[in-house]
Amino acid sequence: MKRPVYIWLLTLVVAVIYIATLAFVRIKNPEHIQYEAYRRWQETYLVRKNNKQTYVNTSNDQKHPVALSEGQGYGLQVVSRAAEKGWASENDFDKLLNYYLAHRDYVGKHHDQLTYLMSWRQSYNKEGQWVDDHNSATDGDLYIAAALHRAAKVWPQKAPYYHKLEQQIATDIMKYEYNPTTHMLTVGDWVTKDSKFYYLLRTSDVMPTVFDHLYDCTHDSRWQMIKNNMLDRLTALSKQHRTGLVPDFAWARPGSTKPVGPNTVAGKYDGDYSANACRVPMMLAKSNDPRAQKVLNKMMRFFSEQYYITAGYSLNGHRLVKYQSNSFSAPIFYAVSCNRNEGYDNLFASQKHIFSKPLTEKNYYDATLTTLAALEGMN
């Protein structure tokens, strides 16, 4: 018995709707992941200091918050990227920016010279006062400058203001966080030429695209020298092991580059691929410089050979721990997302596990790097 024409038409309509719904879900799913990551990150880690200031709580403890310049820089980047999607406002960005401006670092013998570098940490003291620790951290200052560069594009009507702040940060980085002997950045304004850390390199401070932006903003040729010299040092470290892995910290003295030993700076993994170096893939991902791509590709080849990626490795490729961590996987996902034509589809697929569960509310570092990877790596 033949079915009436309207039955066939109805069947066709249902099929078309079904296919369209699947396509819609497939297209919208990445955006849903991005939005949920941003929403949970915002609700969990952003703290309202007053009507005009907001900071990122990095302590993983709402009762005992701690703000870091690194976290504030990340926060500015997350919010500016969310604003591009209509999920955050200029006011949200400016509240984070106002907090940074209210907590700039002082230098000099008596700490009486105000800079545009951010005090590296703020927390409550025993008397219950919110206080600044002296000294800056170069990575935090670079993140803030990078966020200002993006903000000028997101809110062009306010671009002159954001670019001026970017220039002022760049000027003070050169004044207080620059080693003119090696033409590289130090790890903070507390490192002077008399410090034993004068030749210390934090590998995650090698940010070639940020250096390019700061050169474009300031026209100071020293930013090109910094980019070239720091990339050369990173390349030298990459060549020292088959894995291409680089350490958290290295000695970058004139004529030599080598990993530091354990407990030189922060802990026993200072000379390994650990909590600082895990950001290197993210820092190199968008650079067109052949050196950056060579270092990145060598690392990605190593990771693509791993059954699963753990939270840290010795430079020769031995696992430091057995567990996984989003703060290691998120930068890898971000890097392969920006370089899909390099043949690392297995990494793109395997590192999606960072989105398999709701964003953690107990680890600021994991959550923030995952949110950054979602906002920019799932386009």
TrEMBL record:
<keyword id="KW-0472">Membrane</keyword>
<dbReference type="InterPro" id="IPR002037">
    <property type="entry name" value="Glyco_hydro_8"/>
</dbReference>
<dbReference type="GO" id="GO:0008810">
    <property type="term" value="F:cellulase activity"/>
</dbReference>
<dbReference type="InterPro" id="IPR008928">
    <property type="entry name" value="6-hairpin_glycosidase_sf"/>
</dbReference>
<keyword id="KW-1133">Transmembrane helix</keyword>
<dbReference type="GO" id="GO:0005975">
    <property type="term" value="P:carbohydrate metabolic process"/>
</dbReference>
<keyword id="KW-0378">Hydrolase</keyword>
<keyword id="KW-0812">Transmembrane</keyword>
<keyword id="KW-0326">Glycosidase</keyword>
<dbReference type="InterPro" id="IPR012341">
    <property type="entry name" value="6hp_glycosidase-like_sf"/>
</dbReference>
<dbReference type="Pfam" id="PF01270">
    <property type="entry name" value="Glyco_hydro_8"/>
</dbReference>
<protein>
    <submittedName>
        <fullName>Glycosyl hydrolase family 8</fullName>
        <ecNumber>3.2.1.4</ecNumber>
    </submittedName>
</protein>
<feature type="transmembrane region" description="Helical">
    <location>
        <begin position="6"/>
        <end position="25"/>
    </location>
</feature>
<comment type="similarity">
    <text>Belongs to the glycosyl hydrolase 8 (cellulase D) family.</text>
</comment>
